Amino acid sequence: MTSVTDDLPLAADFPKATVEDWRKLVDGVLKGAPFEKLVGKTYDGLKIDPLYPRARGVAPVVGRAAAAPWQIMQRIDHPDAAAANAQALQDLENGATGLALVFAGGNGAHGFGLEPTADAVAKVLKDIHLDAGIGIELQIGPQSRMAAIHIAEYVKSKGLDPAACDIRFGLDPLAACAVWGHSPYTWEEIAPAVTGGIKGLAALGFKGPFASADGRVIHDAGGSEVQELAFVLACGVAYLRAIEGAGVPLEAAQGMVYARLAADADQFLTMAKFRALRLLWARIETACGLTPKPLFIAADTAWRMLTQRDPYVNMLRATMATFAAGLAGANAITVLPHTLALGLPDPFARRVARNTQLLLLEESNLAKVSDPAAGAGGIETLTAQLCEAAWALFQESEKAGGAFAALQQALFQSKVAAARKARDANIAKRRDVLTGASEFPNLHERETAVLKATPVALAPYGEQKYKFDALPPIRLAEPFEALRDKSDAALKARGARPKVFLANLGTPADFTARATFAKSFFEAGGIQAIDSEGFADPAKLVAAFRASGAELACLCSSDKVYAEHAEAAAKALQTAGTRHIYLAGRPTEAEAGLRAAGVTGFVFAGGDALATLQDAYRRMEQA
Known about the structure:
The protein has 623 residues and is of the alpha/beta class. 46% of the residues lie in helices and 11% in strands.
C-alpha cells in the first residue's frame, strides 16, 4: 500500500531551511542586539545555544531494559510505624511498585522518618510481601544505620530468600558527613565498618546494591549539575575502592554500588544529567578494567524546588522532573509529595505523588522508547558538556585524596557556595522564577492540610571530632516565604497585612501593565496591593491613598504619563505623609527630579526584588 507521503511529498513544496536563513530572521528581531543575548548559561558556565543541528553518529545511552518501566517508589516516612504500614499497603494496592523507607536522621528525611528499631521495622513491613517483585529502598543515616540490619533480620525471620528480595540498602556515610559538616571518624575508620556491613549482607544472600552515592546532597544545598555528578562519582569510587580493599573482587563490587540523583523542573538539564552519569560511570568501569554494566540510578524529585506557598504548583514541578528523569532512563523514581515542605503529607498529597508517575507511565507511555533524546542536538551537546566538566571536577577530588578528603578541604563546598550565591542572586532578581512564591503570589490561598505527627527523637551520633563546612539542604523559595510569614504575623496581630497603594496615573491603557507588575512584585513579599482607578488630579489621588489605609505607595503608568504627572503626584503623596514612594519602571534621566519630588525607590524587571521588599519591611517597622 502506498502511503500518503509517497503520493504527496509536502516538504518538497517548501524551500530547504538553512541556519543562515534562520539567522537572518533572528537578526531582524534582535534589531542590532548581539546574538549572544540568546545564548544561555548554566550555573556551571556551560553555554546553551538557541538552536542545535541534529547530532549524528551517536548511540542511545543504555539505561533501563528496553520498554521496561521505572519503579514507582513511594515515600514511607510516617513516624508511627502502624500508620506507615497502612500507607505502604495502600500505595502498593494503588499502583506503587516500590517503597522508599525513609528513616529518621537519614538524608532526605526532612524532619520526619521511621523509627530505626526492629519493632518498628516489623510493624512497617507487616503483610508486605518483600519477595513479590516490589522494590525496597532504604534511606538511612548514621543514627539509623541499624535499620539495614533489622530489615535483613526481618527477611530471615519470615523465611524469605534474600536473593528474591529487591532491596537497596542505602549505606552512605559520606552523604551524612557532607550534610552534617562533621564526623567522629576518619574515612580509614569509616570504610571498614561500611564494607563489613556490605559483606555481611551479601553473605546472607542479598544481591544489593548496598552502597549509595547520593547526589541530592549537592543539589539540596544549591549546587550545580556538574558538582552533583562529580560528587556522585567521587563517592561511588570511594565505595568501590573500599569494597575491593575488603577482599571483594571488583567484578562483584561493581553491582554493590548505585547512585541517586535529584530531578528538578529543568527538563533538558535533568535529562542531560542522568544521561551523563551513565556515560561517566561507564568510563570509570572501563578504567577499572571492567566491562561496563548499566548503573542503577534512583531519582528523587528535588527538595529545593518545593515551595510552601501555593504548594499545588509543586505538582507541576514534580511532573516535569519525573518526565525528565523517566525519559533519561532512571531506574526508580520517588516523587516528593507537593506538601512535604509544609509537613507530613496527607493521603491526597501521597495519592497525587503516586499518580503523577502512573499517568506518565500508563497513559503517556513514556517508558516505551529507550533514550528518546538520543540524537537530539541540544541534549546530546549538554550531555557531553556535563561529562567533560564533571570529569574534570572528579579528577580534582581524586587529586585531593578522594571524596572524604575533598570534603575536609572544602573542595565541593566552595564550589557549591559559589553556585548558590549566583542562584540566590537570580532568585532575588526573579530571573529564576518561583511561581506562587516570587511571582504570581496568592495572598488569599487557603491553608493546606498536612498530618499531625511527632518526629522520632534520635540520640546524637558521636562527637564532632573532624569538622568541615556543612552542606545542609535548603529550599530556594525560603527568602520570599520569610516575608510572607511576616505578613501573616501582621494579619494575625493587627487584622490587616502591610499594604501598598497602587497610585495609577492616566487611563487603564497607560497604567495596567505596570500596575499588574507592581501587584505581583509587592505581594510576592506579602505586601497587599490596593488597586485604584487612574488619576490626573493630585488631590483625588491623595484622598484615595488615605482611604486605602496603605503605608506605602507605588506610582504606576507609562513613561509618557510619568513625564507629565509623576513629579506632581509624588509631591502630593509625600505631603500626605506617605512613608515610602515607589515608581514602577526603571530609573531614567528624570530620576533626579523624581527623587527630589519624593520617589525613593524604583521597581522593575531585573531589579533586586528581595532586597527592595526587605527594605520596605524595615521602613514600615521603623515608622
